[in-house]
Design brief:
Layout lengths: L1 E3 L6 E4 L4 H12 L5 E4 L5 H12 L2 E6 L2 E6 L8 E2 L4 H13 L3 E4 L10 H9 L10 E3 L6 E5 L5 H10 L7 E5 L6 H13 L5 E4 L3 E4 L9 E3 L4 H11 L6 E4 L12 H7 L3 E4 L3 E5 L8 E2 L7 H11 L3 E4 L11 H11 L3 E5 L2 E5 L5 E3 L5 H11 L6 E3 L12 H7 L5
Parallel strand pairs: 2-14, 3-13, 6-7, 9-10, 17-18, 21-22
Antiparallel strand pairs: 1-22, 3-5, 4-5, 7-8, 10-12, 11-12, 14-16, 15-16, 18-20, 19-20
Length: about 400
């Protein structure tokens, strides 16, 4: 448990590396022959999962000062791959494990409940069986060919198939049977694969992709860029102070879809300035706006916080997939805002928000982004903010509380 005494936050913070890109870069490096180096890695709980899985695949991993070196020979998985609570690790690794000979995977908490139906259909089409729940037995033998895949559940299924495709014997053609949500994450996957020598042909953007057989990942060096989704929490907090917060380590030309937070802030009249690798924000009178988060669901807690600060009624739509995150994130956002004195309610797949936060106690629901939302909003509160479990931030941002204190946070 942690209790925060409200204090406006100001100063400069270097954002941690993108967890989403780190997963992708590390797996591409692991699938390449020879030694590879991936730098600017933060050892969050989820990234530790992927690194442990890489070692289960026969590769040797050494880590020093945020730099990971991967060496050794790739092989069939050795022992059980434990994915803890990392949905990215699980979904990226399932087709890779199958292509390498199959294996057993497991995890904990809500991870076993997160849907695998997209993969189940893909495996079934090739005469293979993939069950739901843990321990998960991943069969050997997934190969290329024509893959018909839904794009409406999670882009991670498309990314997982892409990452595994170069291990397969035949060309893989992925055709989406529904609208692709969070398509920017697929673009990030293609960017990571390209950095390690794999070409993905876009036959029809956000609809059809082709990965030719016979390609091999090439060993190399790569650097992970800063995380735009995590920047959102400091952008939210920075609105509390005339001196503002400057966030460094960001790539303004990124393929990360969560860069859209800048557009959202502009729409709400926030005072922001953008440089090549930094964003500055300062105290602003936000105007209300209705926002669709279907393409950037990880920003939902930040957007909810911004809406609360307007004091007016705002509606956040496109929230359906929030129900299958680390928590039922529709419920946890609503409960957290109400716990802080705002007024929020869910209506089907939307969240209706009115009223500024004042302070109070919240249940993080085991969700890193809920805890960080509450911490950022504490800078705008008059009363203390208590979070029942501060350790949940370790899933994605282990240095969060250190950075919070450096910006003037009082714990």
């Amino acid at each position: 448990m942690i209790t925060i005494t409200p204090s406006p936050l100001a100063g400069q913070v270097r954002i941690p590396p993108s967890k989403s890109m780190a997963h992708r870069m590390l797996l591409c490096a692991a699938l390449a022959d020879g030694d590879s180096v991936v730098s600017n890695i933060a050892l969050s709980d989820d990234i530790k999962v992927t690194l442990d899985a890489i070692m289960r695949l026969g590769r040797h991993v050494s880590i020093a000062d945020g730099t990971v070196k991967i060496s050794g020979a790739l092989k069939k998985p050795d022992g059980i791959i434990h994915c803890n609570e990392s949905g990215s690790s699980l979904r990226f690794l399932i087709p890779i494990v199958s292509a390498l000979g199959g294996g057993i995977m497991t995890g904990k908490k809500r991870l076993g409940e997160r849907p695998l139906n997209v993969y189940q259909s893909v495996f079934e089409a090739q005469g293979l069986e993939l069950s739901q729940g843990f321990p998960l037995s991943v069969p050997d033998g997934l190969d290329g060919g024509e893959m018909e895949v839904s794009g409406s559940v999670s882009s991670q299924f498309i990314s997982g198939l892409m990452l595994a495709a170069p291990l397969m014997h035949t060309d893989m053609r992925i055709r989406l049977t529904s609208t692709l949500e969070s398509g920017a994450y697929v673009d990030m996957t293609m960017q990571a694969m390209s950095a390690f020598g794999i070409d993905v042909k876009v036959i029809n953007e956000n609809q059809e992709y082709l990965i030719r057989a016979g390609q091999q990942y090439r060993a190399g060096e790569a650097t992970v860029e800063g995380d735009w989704s995590q920047s959102g929490f400091w952008l939210l907090a920075g609105l509390s102070n005339e001196n503002g917060i400057t966030i460094t380590g960001l790539d303004s030309n990124t393929k990360q879809g969560d860069r859209v937070i800048l557009d959202i802030l502009k729409q709400m009249d926030a005072k922001i300035a953008l440089a090549d690798s930094a964003v500055m924000i300062k105290k602003s009178d936000l105007k209300p706006a209705d926002i669709d988060v279907a393409q950037s669901p990880d920003l939902a807690p930040v957007v909810a916080g911004l809406m609360a600060l307007t004091g007016e009624t705002c509606v956040m739509s496109g929230c359906a997939r929030l129900r299958i995150k680390e928590s039922d994130r529709i419920a946890s956002i609503v409960n957290a805002l109400n716990g802080l004195g705002s007024h929020a309610k869910s209506v089907d797949d939307t969240i209706v928000i009115k009223g500024r936060p004042e302070g109070g106690s919240i249940h993080a629901a085991g969700d890193h982004r809920i805890a960080m939302m509450a911490a950022a909003l504490s800078a705008h509160c008059m009363q203390k903010v208590t979070i029942d479990d501060e350790t949940v931030v370790n899933k994605s941002y282990p240095a969060f509380w250190d950075d919070f204190i450096c910006l003037g946070g009082k714990i």
